[in-house]
Amino acid sequence: MALVFHKLVSLEEALRIIDEKMGGIKPLGIESVPLHHAYGRILAEDVYARVDSPPFDRSTVDGYAVIAEDTYNADEANPAKLKLLGKVEVGDIPNIEIYRGTCVEISTGAPIPRGADAVVMVEYTKTEDGDILVYRGVSPGENIAQTGSDASIGDLILRRGRRIGPREMGALAAVGCSEVKVYATPRVAIFSTGNELIPISEKLKPGKIYDVNSHAISAMLKDLGVKVDFHGILPDNYIVIKKSIEKALEKYDIIVTSGSTSAGFGDIIYRVFEELGGVLIHGLKIKPGKPTVIAATEDNKLLIGLPGFPLSAMMVFMVLAKPIIMKMMGMQSFGEENIVKAKIPIRIETGKGRRHLIPVQVLSSAEGLIAYPVLGDSGAATTLSIADGFIDIEEEKQYLSEDEEVAVKLFQPLKIPSISIVGSNCPALSILLDEAGLWDAKQVNVGSFSGWRALKRGEADIAGTHLLDPETRKYNIHMPRKMGLENEVEIYRGYIRTIGLVIAKENPKNIKKIEDILREDVIFVNRVKGSGVRTFLDIKLSELGVGEPEKKIRGYTYEVKTHTAVASAVAQGRADVGIAVGYVAELYGLDFIPLAEEYFDFAVRKDRLSKESVERFIETLRSESFHRKLEEIPYYKTCPETGRKIFG
Amino acid sequence: MALVFHKLVSLEEALRIIDEKMGGIKPLGIESVPLHHAYGRILAEDVYARVDSPPFDRSTVDGYAVIAEDTYNADEANPAKLKLLGKVEVGDIPNIEIYRGTCVEISTGAPIPRGADAVVMVEYTKTEDGDILVYRGVSPGENIAQTGSDASIGDLILRRGRRIGPREMGALAAVGCSEVKVYATPRVAIFSTGNELIPISEKLKPGKIYDVNSHAISAMLKDLGVKVDFHGILPDNYIVIKKSIEKALEKYDIIVTSGSTSAGFGDIIYRVFEELGGVLIHGLKIKPGKPTVIAATEDNKLLIGLPGFPLSAMMVFMVLAKPIIMKMMGMQSFGEENIVKAKIPIRIETGKGRRHLIPVQVLSSAEGLIAYPVLGDSGAATTLSIADGFIDIEEEKQYLSEDEEVAVKLFQPLKIPSISIVGSNCPALSILLDEAGLWDAKQVNVGSFSGWRALKRGEADIAGTHLLDPETRKYNIHMPRKMGLENEVEIYRGYIRTIGLVIAKENPKNIKKIEDILREDVIFVNRVKGSGVRTFLDIKLSELGVGEPEKKIRGYTYEVKTHTAVASAVAQGRADVGIAVGYVAELYGLDFIPLAEEYFDFAVRKDRLSKESVERFIETLRSESFHRKLEEIPYYKTCPETGRKIFG
After folding, report:
1. C-alpha–C-alpha distance, residues A175 and B624, integer Å
2. Which of A55, B94, B332, B439 is 20 to 30 Å from A458 at the Cα level?
3. What are the phi and psi torsion angles at A273 (to 5°)?
4. CA-CA distance, A491 to A476, in Å (whole number)?
5. Residue A216: CA atoms inside 13 Å, Cβ hemisphere, count?
């Protein structure tokens, strides 16, 4: 039996072990930089004000510097009349002193002349024969920013460990910090390892995949503000990997690899890391992310071996590598916390024994935020670009119940999208949103039925739906009653799309009709349960009297999630036939045999009809320009009812 | 009467006018860049998958590729025995086909060989004489990532207008986007204007202030990801400013100035902008931020004239310039929304007619978040570095009531600090926190009494307090009863600090005792009402039988907020004497006449005593190392009770 992971540890244990073995994860050093080079760096000193801010009493308005007492009785009817002695401009050192009955013209930011204790705004004055009439009284100190009122010499301005952003730059400049001490920035070298990887610049070859991690992980490191160099793709070769990392250790503080961490057969990274330093962690009790290796050299350089699968690599980077690197950067707080509470709309099974990190999309409803899990295995690379954050399910939990409250760790501040559309996905919907200018629309693709549930729960403004009523053979208009939403929704007719058999170019297997999928020499590719197409197929099969289809159709259990995946399977010869919208056959250069036309409609919550974005959506659905674009898509067409209300 | 603003407009009007006059604010162009140069850029195209991800069916685990049916009855007692045909590694093109009763060794990520429809994890197998024993059944498709299951050719991956960060980089690489179309990045030139400004690298001269805005605004632009060049400080000179901006317009898309926008006397920026293009906005109905000028040239280059005062400049940048520039960058959503609901702990008066933007510090209590306004005039530069965000009070509102709910626009994701300390500030408290390693402590400096209120409301873990009981002449221990917190708090003895008269070096005015502040030739600097020192002074004055002190003490109405501000006023000769802790006299090189010793204690909520950070705080208060550091501060000392519980 092959080697398995040495000892799986939890994230907390991992952090503790690494901290302990490295004698405390510490910043790499301190350097002094001029303020204009300090942007993005981490303060390495507590900063105290070196000058007062402002450094003198100054006017906060344009007006006249006065002695407040002279104005106490002034009002619209009885202005105070003051003799104008002169003018103080910004940057001046005032050489005028005022006394009772006099005033001095003063600009915003100019120093208060001796004797004055308040400033009257110009708006409440008039000039009359060289004198100033004041129509409103001021109290002592009014419209004056006192010396040091912002910060006085010796005041603590910023504590160390803080990242220097715009607000910090402003504060440091105001109190005279022309140089600041900052922590040294770690230098990080990145490697991708694996015989299967080829760079994005090359053409994909059979058995190969694009190197995703170097791009994603480099960007994550850049987000942190470290210096990062990508050192290329290495083959699964112990000698090559060892030599490359050894060389990089001469120049870099941290080495991040991804791939070749899997314990089963290769285990190369483990062996290289053990050789070059000492492995501290081999295997994490999280999913995704188990095959992670962390080591440290004798001089405390850090070796981080991320899993090769992109989702795993990115999640492990976020939950483990990032907090360690932030500590090495001198950031005092472990990670920016950006957590929101949300409810999950469906039960999620996880199983005990490992902590689960599940990417989610977040929608808002009247009762708060809702977190939809984004499905995808650990090899998925696009999952995270759809997700807003992730939920973290502890080891002991076996499942989360529907409506259970969870904490979502956001990837970035939550944007409130102008419109949220949940339900079935369709390429034409993207075109519609584009035409409507609703680029920030939140789309959650969970199938027609779940779209209706999201409408009911108030999470969606609109649901894209193509559900056939087996009884009436009509599309969608049976749903409001079925869902108990008769008074809550309207349905707008969308468009018609043709579904049918997707087959290889020139039909080598001579497939003619749906019954052909039962043939011994034909491999079928199916859609997942709950999809419109699967429902359509199962109705057809039952009409044909086909029981136990999983035994009678080769590939019936080969389920894919999208129309494009059906076409892809046929295009690559993994299957001979599948059912999908005709559009994808065209996209993949395949043949297509139409089987049926279906209506793709839009159900809208009535309480969202007044939203500008929803109005725009419906208007666009009716627009000629959208109709023209839609008719350009193969196997799509509008109908006279397109954009009309067909229910509600 | 001087020129006033031409027409004040609201933020919404301003955005509408600018958009209209510029014929719609649009991105500046589109360029194509290789993926590895795309980090941080804004996508200018909708991206569709060019290859399938993954591009072939692959194993998600280390194990054995099998025909699922062969394993259906396998369990711990009755393993299925399969003939091992060979091995598939990642990067291989499998040339083995499996049939019933056989299997192939396979690594994570390797292509599934023909014939196999599932993979058994290595953990559930054993090798026996070259055969493989399988101890757990798998179902078809198990542990296989299907071709295109992440994304299939033709799937919409990302919409345009999205910033390319780590997750986007990963998705783009996975689907074969080696080049992406991105929007051109605006080039921005920054100027600071004003005769009063000097660069941070020089020594401050009388009447001059440091240029804060170039640092803060450059960093804000860098945060957005635009190219920014600072073009230096310009004097308030029409010709110089006009020529400099004119020249910059040859190379830059956006010019940002700050200063010289004030309408009252100079109005230079208005005239220059009018000359070079056409002024669209002159004056905003917001506070801070009124003196803002926006113009556009004929070729749609944007001129942004921010107010000179730092807080105004930064706020106007955030609420007006940022959304415009983001639109010019092609970002489809107007700003990252990062809004939290909070309650305000005190009534805030604003007055009608202008929208108010008030920086706040955010604390959490059992009932949710609390937003404490951070005081500071529009010239303040350090205010924003303390604040977590700001609240936006609409024009029509005159005030916010205590406990009113407000929306806080956060500057960055909210961090939950390990400890929150509200109340009176003291330099020794910073040393204590530093010693305790509580760098991320949230400190809200609002004075002793407000600290007690924050304790009562559950917003603070700890309050720093030095309140004298006029009856018992004891410090702080009368407060729990007064606040109705007898059962909720404990008080820990802090340390003793000496307060007294702060006077110029060598005492030129021969001040000896507190009564000297009544002298005709002496100017006093007072502290604000509610401060411990002010309370002390007023008690003393009443003991001395001094009524109407504002008439009898010169400078009694000259109120400052901090101990350091008292010292600063004396050091600069703005006042002859003030009352403060002796430490600041030392800091400013002033003389000091002790008047009294006061206890600075710490009240702790009992329900927070178990927090690790609170424990650490109290331990440190007791620690020898802190005591040593404290004794080094002039006029500070510990007492035998330091760190001991004196109440509760």
Report:
1. 33
2. B332
3. -65, -40
4. 8
5. 32
Same domain, A104 and A130: yes
Is A170 close to B215, i.e. CB distance below 8 A? yes
* CATH number, position B610: 3.40.190.290
Residue B76 belongs to domain spanning: 58-145
Per-residue pLDDT of A282-309, as tens digits, reads 999 999 998 899 999 999 999 999 999 9
Domain boundary among A391, A416, A441: A416
pTM for the model: 0.90
CB contact under 8 Å between A588 and B51, yes or no, is no
Residue B423 inside a domain? The answer is no
Q: Are residues B196 and B78 in the same domain?
A: no
Q: H or E element: which one contains B327? A: helix B322-328
Spell out which residues of chain B touch residue A557, defining contact as CB-CB under 8 Å. Answer: 117, 139-141
One domain, residues A524 and A605? yes
CB B403 within 8 A of CB B344: yes
Q: Are residues A460 and A400 in the same domain?
A: no
Q: Which of B52, B62, B171 sits opposite A265 (nearest CB)?
A: B62
Amino acid at B166: P
Please count the structural domains in chain B.
Answer: 5
Which tens digits make up the pLDDT trace of B326-345? 999 998 764 456 888 999 98
Look at residues B577, B552, B557, B553 and name the one whose alpha carbon lies nearest to residue B566: B577
| Separation of alpha carbons A379 and A312, rounded Å | 7
Decide: B293 and B191 in contact? Cβ < 8 Å.
no
Going by C-alpha positions, the residue among B512, B466, B497 that lies closest to residue B597 is B497
A603: part of which helix (H) or strand (E)?
strand A591-605
User: Is residue B336 a contact partner of residue A413, using CB atoms and an 8 Å limit?
Assistant: yes
Which range scores top for mean pLDDT: A523-532, A552-561, B9-18? B9-18
Examine the domain organization and report whether A43 and A90 are in the same domain: no
The structure tokens listed for B551 are: 């008439």
- Across A176-215, b (16+ Cβ under 10 Å) vs e yields bbbebbbbbbbebbbbbbbbbbbbbeeebeebbbbbbbbb
**Residue contact A565–B146, C-beta within 8 A:** yes
Closest partner CB to B54 (pick from A215, A379, A387): A379
Identify whether residues A494 and A642 lie together within a single domain.
yes
Is residue B246 situated within a structural domain? yes
User: Is the backbone of residue A283 left (phi > 0), alpha (psi -120 to 50) or beta?
Assistant: left
Q: Is residue B422 part of a domain?
A: no
CB distance B62–A217 less than 8 Å?
no
Is the minimum CB–CB distance between A67 and chain B shorter than 8 Å? no
Q: What ipTM did this prediction achieve? A: 0.90
Q: How many CA atoms lie within 13 A of A508 on its CB side?
A: 11
Contacts of A545 (CB under 8 A, 6+ apart): none
* Residue where a domain terminates, one of A357, A389, A416: A416
Q: B613-629: string of b/e by CB count within 10 Å (b at 16+)?
A: bbebbbebbebeebbeb
Contacts of B318 (CB under 8 A, 6+ apart): B220
Nearest residue to A152 via CA among A48, A47, A46: A48
A278: in domain: yes
Task: Retrieve residue A640's tokens.
Answer: 């006279």
Same domain, A48 and A66: no
B489, B568: one domain? yes
Q: How many CA atoms lie within 13 A of A383 on its CB side?
A: 28
Whole-angstrom CA distances from B355 to A531, B284, B397, B399 are: 51, 9, 8, 11
Say yes or no to pLDDT of A352 above 80: no
Type of residue at B164 = I
User: For every residue of A314-332, which 3-state class applies, written as one string?
Assistant: HHHHHHHHHHHHHHHHCCC
Tell whether A178 is within 8 A of chain B (Cβ). Answer: yes
